[in-house]
Amino acid sequence: MKIYRSLSELPADLGPVVATIGNFDGVHRGHRWVIDQVNARARTLCLPSLLITFDPHPVRVLRPDAPHSLITPLEQKLALLGETGIDAALILPFTPELSRLTARQFAEILANDIHVREVHEGENFRFGHKAEAGMEGLEQLGHELGFTAQTYSPHILRAAPVSSSRIRNLIAAGALHHARALTGRPFAIQSTPASGRGYGTRYTVPTINLAPYPELLPAKGVYVTTLKVGTGPHAETFNAVTNIGDRPTFGADSFAVESHLLNFHAVDLNEQTPLELTFLQRLRPEIRWPNPEALRTQIGLDVKKAQRYFALCTTLTKEKAPAT
Ligand SMILES: Cc1cc2nc3c(=O)[nH]c(=O)nc-3n(C[C@H](O)[C@H](O)[C@H](O)COP(=O)(O)O)c2cc1C
Ligand SMILES: Nc1ncnc2c1ncn2[C@@H]1O[C@H](COP(=O)(O)OP(=O)(O)OP(=O)(O)O)[C@@H](O)[C@H]1O
Predict the structure, then answer these.
(1) Rounded Cα distance, 151 and 271, in Å
(2) Which domains can be identified in the chain, with CATH numbers?
(3) 203 lines ligand 1 (CB under 6 A)
(4) d(Cα 312, Cα 59) in Å, to the nearest integer?
(5) What value of ipTM does the predicted structure carry?
(6) Which residues does the UniProt record annotate as the domain Riboflavin kinase (predicted)?
(7) pLDDT digits (tens, 9 = 90+) for 116-147
(8) Which residues sit opposite 116 in a β-bridge?
(9) Which of 16, 113, 160, 223 counts the highest number of beta carbons within 10 A?
(10) pLDDT tens, 236-249?
(11) Is residue 217 within 6 Å of ligand 2 at its C-beta?
């Protein structure tokens, strides 16, 4: 997938293109449904497929005071979009000026600068200053400016339309299984290591702490996870149990995300080592234990549950594998 980070980066000879526009946070099943249609049309017409997205997320510019955390920060989103078969992604810097473009001005950019032949969107798509226009407006403007607009009814899963906001709420509530059904993959975050206070090694179990993470995290609590350390051919993935929370057993609140590796062996870690933490199952809420011994005993039980989870996964994977 080619990535263009502004209009001026688009090669002059790219168009005409079959395009879709949106935030695509979480790259969920509704998004992938639309992207598949775009790719199929592009192949039929022998044109490149192009996904147009925005950075930062428009909400951050339009409502800077409203808390809004991303399911997939930009680079993670681009990596996932790269797996969809889309030929190119154009990231439009979402500025106050862009937010003030009228629907017509935006459609003119689509026609004259991006050379769209077709634009494919879900029926809830809105664009232009104060979200003034929807798919009907896009169709009319396209008719004038020389492109067509294709509208899709919402992709429904578990009795409601799939949307980034729905998935965000599920993850924030710790409902990881439900969120996974809507995205088609477990929720994962990318970070780097940070130093802990040393309490774990002294009183409970050793952990790898993650650097403060500014985007979406699951609800506070204890989870079965995997932790991938490093990238590329030298990356290693460990089974783990992870606590997200304030660690109230040790006094004053001190928020952290920290993982205890089950199949630990020494790895070379520094502050830049890429980490990917994947959340598989929620085990329990975080609790203020009367003393570190009680917490250590509970973590022992958490580890046993996680081991059972991984053992069951291995058995199921083996059962699913074709006979050799
Ligand atoms: C699997 C797991 C479960 C945990 N559960 C709790 C908990 O219920 N309550 C709590 O106060 N801390 C909990 N913790 C956090 C420990 O208190 C934490 O590991 C300890 O404070 C070490 O901090 P440090 O890494 O800064 O040294 C948990 C940690 C792990 C790895
Ligand atoms: N469930 C769905 N079915 C069909 N199309 C969808 C679905 N969800 C999103 N789309 C379409 O995918 C494109 C990108 O969507 P976008 O990420 O902007 O919205 P969203 O997933 O609904 O997020 P939010 O909940 O933040 O509004 C748009 O054309 C949108 O209409």
Answers:
(1) 46
(2) 2-161 (3.40.50.620), 186-320 (2.40.30.30)
(3) no
(4) 41
(5) 0.91
(6) 182-311
(7) 999 999 999 999 999 999 999 999 999 999 99
(8) 17
(9) 223
(10) 999 999 999 999 99
(11) no
